[in-house]
Structure formats: C-alpha cells, structure tokens
Amino acid sequence: MEQASRRVDIYYNLNYIKIMRFKRALPLIFLVIAALALRVAGIKLGLPSETGGLATLHGDESMTFHSLGNMNPSKLDFYPGDTISWGTFHVYSIGALIKTLDLAGVIELGDRQKLQDNLGEVDKMYLAARAFSALFGVLSIVALYFIGCLFLSERAALFSAILMAFSLAPVMISYLVKPDTTMLFWGLISVYFSFKLLREPSTANYFLAGSFLGLAFITKLSAALLGFFPFAAHFYHVYAARNPFFGFKKFSILTVSGLAVYLILNPYLILRFSDELKWMSIVFSCGSVGANSGGSLLEVYAAYFLSVLPAAFGWALVPFALAAVARWFRGPSYEKKISAVYCALFIAWSGATPFTNVHYALLVAPFLFLAAGDLAHRLFNKRWGKLLVIAVFAQVLLYTLYIKRNYVSSYTTKEADTWIRENVPEGSTIAISRNDFWMPRVIRRRSGSFKLLEGGAPQGMLPQAIVELGNIYSKADYVIISEYEYAGLQSAPKEFPAENAALEKIFSGTKEVKRFEHRLPLYILPFQSKSHGYQPAAGLQVNFMNPGMLVLKVIPPPGQAAKAASSAGGRPGGGIIKK
Is the confidence at residue 571, as pLDDT, over 60? Predict the structure, then answer.
C-alpha cells in the first residue's frame, strides 16, 4: 500500500513538473506565435503577378531564382552563379523546397517564357521561399532566448526575445527571399555552444560550435564575423591556463569541423577555386573603411548612429541598447564581456563603412537585444524604470507596425501604374533608364500601347543606363524615373560626374507632371540620411516599397513643337507612334 502511494506521489510530482514547465514556456510560445504572425503579415506584397515581372519590389529577392534557373541538373551543374557571393546553403535549400513542391503538384515549373506567361506559379515560388525565411526568423528568436538563459535571468532572456521578435530589421528580413534569417539561426546556435564552451571546453562543444559556424558561413559569408565567439571562448581558456597550446587538438576540431561543413555544401571552393576567391574578395572588400565624396569619417559615423541603427531597430532602442552594452564591460560575467567587446568592435567597423545596409546590423542585433533585455530586467522593478522599459519597447513595436502597414497598403509603384494608364495618352513614347523592379507594371509588362525607349538592359549597369537615358530622352514624350535611379547618383557628384550631367540634362529638358512618394515622417525616423551611389538611404531601405517616382513630360524645342501641332491638326495628344 505504501509503495502504491509512493508511485502516486511520483506520478503527481512528475505531472506537476510538466505543468510548471509548460506554464513557464507559455510566454515564449505566445511570443513565437505573435512573431510568426507579424512576419507573414503582408507576405503577398509585390508578388510577380502584381509587379508584372519575374522580380518583386525588392531587388535582391530574384537573385535566388535567377541562380536556380541557370543551373543544369542533368549535367550535375549546380554552380550558384552570383549568389555564390552569399553562400550555397540558402539557394540549395530553396531549390530543394521548390522542386519538392513541383513534384507534389503544388507548383508547375517551366522555362523563363512559360513562367512569364504564368506569373501565378512564380507567386507560389516566392511565397514558399518567403515562408522559409519567416520560419528561420522565428527559430532565431527561440535560439536567442536559450542563449540568454545560459547567463541571464529567465525574464531578461524573454525581454531579449521580445526585442528580436518585434524589432524591424529581424522582422523585415524574415519576409524577404534572402539568406539572412537562416544564416542568423545557424550563427546563434554556434554562439550558444561557444558560450557553453566558455564554461566547459569539451570536445563536443568545440565540434558543435565549429560545425554550426561553418553552416552559418556557407549560408552567408558575412557570418564569418560570428567566429569571434568560439575563438574568444577558446583563447579565454588559453589565457586562464597560461599555456598557448592549451586545447590545441580541440581547437583543431573547431576549425576542421567548420571547414568540412563548408566544403561539403560548397565543393566549388575546390572545383572553381579562382571564381570562389574572386567573389570572396568582392564580398570582403565591401567592408572597407572610409568616407566617400569628400566627406569625413565623422559624418559616416554620424549617419550610422543617427540613421542606420535607428532605421534598423527604432530610434528609442539605440541609446538604450548602447547604454546596456556599456554596462557589460564591468562585472564578472565573461559571456557579457565577450558580447560587449564584439558589439564595440562590430559598431566601430560597421559604422565606418560608407555603404552600410540596414540589414547588416543583423549580425550585432542579437547581442544588442541581450544587453537591452538584461538592462530592462534590472530596471523593471523600479517605477520609473518600468515606465522607461515600456516606452522603449512600445516605440520599437509601433515603429515596426508603422512600416509593416505599408506591406498591406498601396505603394508608389502601384499608384504610378494606375496614373500612367489613366493619364498618359495612348501611343506615347516613354523613356526609362532600364526596365527594372522599380518600374510600374504597365512598363514592366509592356502592357500599354506605349513605345519604350530604354537606356540599358535590365541586367546592365545602372549608371551607364542613366548616361544613355540622357542621350535618348528627347526622342520620347515622357520620362519615368525613380528615386532608386537618381537619388544616390545626385548625392555623389564627384564619383558620378557623367551620370549627374545626364540627370541635369534630363531634368532641364522636362517638366514634372506627377510625383509619387510616401516618405517616413520625422517622428518615425527623425534623422534620415541621403542615398549614396548604389546604396539607398536608410529610410528607403526599410520603406523599399515606396521609392519616389517621377513622371516627366519632355519639353520639345519650339520649332519641333509647332511642327508636331501642325501634323496633328492642332489636336492635343495627336501623332500616335505605332509599335
């Protein structure tokens, strides 16, 4: 009887433990559900059936499918092409996903012409790939939570996960067909085992930290920066042992496991070594430090702190997180010190690069969130501290929701498309630089009765296309040009003199008849940097669906205008040009 009673007690105790664990996990479960809902909201924005081309409103999304289309499986040719500058895991994963859906009858694949005629099938490809990004974006939140639980309180870890769930940069990149969320997830797993390695330098921790770092690196090459964590953990033990050869065999396991994963998923490092080396040099050269166009390094840093970081996370979180990181330099926790040193080094380098993209902040985001979550935990028990934490977190969420609203509302390219169809006379000749993703659907699909004059091919260089547009625009009736084309070039006149001369020629020879723009208000992003060269302004990077769009009417010379009016019998809009 007593034994039966003990069994009952054990049974109820085990159930109690399970219930308590489930209750403790409930906040994280609800957070994951909310994060997933936020990431898939507006997932249909700018699909090919809406834009009229095989690309979407974001120029990077089509790269994956372009690379897949150039592969030749029958000849075992799986070279990723331009996406090798990212890595191979992403493009191979998306390829496997799309092929599986094709075999299941969900998607019908075909050649380029067939897909252009059936854009609904292309929509499905993008939706599947975007869902893939969203899934790994949510998994990254869970990974960050468990990293926080290693050396922070459970509440601090949850605060950190909340910031990861609702900050704009992680939310935005989870929507796009890009490798960043997948890279970040594998990278965070490597960081998790790196922190475990810091406490226990076991062979398993070395192996797992190295393997997942290799997986992150082959997903996107910029993940190499996260190698700081396993290396820092190892050399902490080397320093503690006062022995430079401490754990040398285990350290070899770390490096060999990472390299092995890289080679397994990218044999082209051996098969096409020169191509690999070329792309790696291009990628890493993008991290060069310095100012452009005669600007100072101080101006570059100012733009980074006042525009890029606030665009990535919201203006309220930036000073809060930076103050939190500063706290971590003090105290006995080596996890905090290593993270703080990484943040300082990353910001010192990234802030000095003139072409910093908002998405690049993802590699420092998790550690800013961990520090901010820890500070929020410390302040939350104080009345003024609780108000401050709520205010910061609320601004982060409201900023993300404001931008996310644009995913489900009208946008400038769509508005321009409607206006052109209704207001530009049939048969008019329209001049553009090139028929790229920012053009309205009526232009992309050539679906109107308009004749197009193009300065360059869609895959050509934009500056050259702008120069050529300056040579041909006078033969047209209208010019359509977007902020993506003119803003960056105008901000760098010394670097692009011919392009700026062409733009000046175009603007002086035309008059503006319609402007479409939805700029971010100052209370959302107070300090907004300018576009520079190929790099859009930070505000446009996050509000990418709303580039400024200009419709310009070409001003004909006086003699030509009189001749045109005479041949048209005095009727406005006469002289239709046939295709």
Answer: no
* Residue whose token pair is 């503006």: 512
Helix (H, G, I), strand (E, B) or coil at 482: strand
Residue 573 has pLDDT above 60, yes or no: no
Which residues partner with 431 through β-bridges? 453, 479
The answer to whether 523 and 491 have CB atoms below 8 angstroms apart is: no
| Chain center to CA of 242 | 43
Predicted pLDDT of residue 186: 98
CA distance 344 to 154: 25
Distance CA 238, CA 542 (A): 43
**105: alpha, beta or left? (left if phi > 0; alpha if psi -120 to 50):** left
pLDDT higher than threshold 80 for residue 533: no
pLDDT in tens, 416-458: 999 999 999 988 999 999 998 889 989 988 777 889 999 998 8
The Cα-based distances of 505 to 217, 454, 470, 471, 517 in angstroms read: 46, 17, 6, 9, 23
Q: In what order do the strands lie in the sheet with 451-454?
A: 451-454, 429-432, 478-482, 549-554, 510-516
Chain centre distance of CA 563:
51
The domain spans of the chain are: 48-110+117-294, 412-567
Task: Give the residue among 157, 207, 216 at the shortest CA–CA distance from 184.
Answer: 216
Instruction: Decide: 238 and 244 in contact? Cβ < 8 Å.
Output: yes
Predicted confidence at residue 15, as pLDDT, reads 59
Question: Residue 548: which pLDDT band, with cuts at 50, 70 and 90?
Answer: very high
495 pLDDT more than 80: yes
Alpha-carbon span 490 to 501, nearest angstrom:
10
Q: What is the pLDDT of residue 457?
A: 86
C-beta atoms surrounding 262 within 10 Å: 19
Q: Whole-model pTM? A: 0.88
SS3 call for 553: strand
Query: What is the DSSP code string of 71-104?
Result: -BGGGTB---GGGGGT-SHHHHHHHHHHHHHHHT
